[in-house]
Design a protein that fits this description.
heterodimer, A: 157 residues, mainly alpha, three-stranded antiparallel β-sheet, B: 134 residues, two-stranded antiparallel sheet, sodium:proton antiporter activity (chain B)
Chain lengths: 157, 134
């Protein structure tokens, strides 16, 4: 978090000093700020782990957009063709997220990808009940959800 | 070139919205309808907002479009989750083609207790939490 704030401040300083108030210039400033933070990371305790987290964040956004488009096309195909190919069902998905914040993020991400909708968390916070639209390959669906959860948790820990 | 990209974004966005509407009419039960409306509509809004940001290309408009995208992506899944959950627990029927339901056996409609199915004797007991109402 400290790392992100410093990166933004360095970006704003770049914009002020270069006197070019555009979004593109702010992006350039943030990139230079990131490089500076990367160089001083070994010496500053509070920056630990920030430089490694940024590429993971970008990778996660890319992965998520890919999943989003793929799943949307699948749902679209099923809506437009007359016979139903879908096999909906409610599955119990064991969570490795622990705190309330992590569970909220994971449940939200699962709800956001088409084809899966998080219904409820069990009282002991161990299992997330998910309504899935395509259960013809349950193993694969579970693996996909696991990968998404794993990648999302990497960002917060 | 930029005209072409803008046009494509607008048309795909609008068709996803149309798809959401068709899905709402065609799909058989509440939960599958929630799938169609929230996600396809959210993706539609995102694409249309990207197109409008590209068209105006001013700081104010771009900032607002991105704010709209972020808020849609934060709120849409929460709304879907709450409506779906409420619908499920007040007993709206699932479609006849539903292949499995792992929630029903773990839910106790009298106490509203939801078990995880992973219980041992130890953690099956209900522990009072600080957030419980008195």
């Amino acid at each position: 978090m400290t790392g992100a704030i410093w990166n933004l401040l360095l970006g704003l300083a770049w914009v002020l000093l270069s006197g070019d108030f555009t979004g593109l210039n702010l992006l350039v400033g943030m990139i230079f700020g990131y490089i500076a933070l990367l160089l001083i990371e070994p010496q500053v305790e509070s920056l630990k782990g920030y430089p490694a987290r940024v590429p993971r964040m970008i990778g996660f956004v890319g992965f998520f957009i890919k999943e989003l488009v793929q799943a949307n096309l699948r749902v679209a195909f099923d809506i437009l063709t007359p016979p139903w190919h879908m096999k909906p069902g409610v599955i119990a998905f064991p969570l490795s997220a622990q705190t309330e914040m992590e569970i909220t993020m994971v449940a939200n991400l699962i709800s956001l990808t088409p084809g899966t909708l998080s219904l409820d968390v069990s009282d002991d916070r161990k299992v997330l009940y998910i309504h899935a639209m395509f259960l013809d390959d349950e193993e694969e669906l579970r693996n996909n959800l696991k990968e998404m959860e794993h990648r999302a948790l990497e960002l917060f820990r | 070139m930029i005209e072409f990209i803008k046009g494509t974004l607008l048309i795909t966005g609008a068709s996803f919205m149309l798809l959401a509407a068709i899905g709402l009419l065609r799909l058989p039960d509440l939960l599958t309808r929630m799938h169609a409306t929230t996600k396809a509509a959210a993706l539609g809004v995102v694409l249309i907002m990207l197109a409008s940001a590209m068209h105006f290309a001013e700081v104010g408009v771009v900032a607002r479009s991105f704010a709209i995208i972020v808020f849609i992506l934060i709120t849409a899944p929460i709304a879907a989750h709450v409506i779906g959950r409420a619908g499920y627990f007040v007993g709206s029927r699932l479609w006849s083609g539903t292949v499995k339901d792992e929630l029903r056996p773990n839910y106790d409609p009298l106490t509203h207790e939801l078990k995880s199915g992973l219980e041992t004797h130890e953690n099956a007991k209900r522990h009072p939490r600080a957030t419980d109402p008195d």
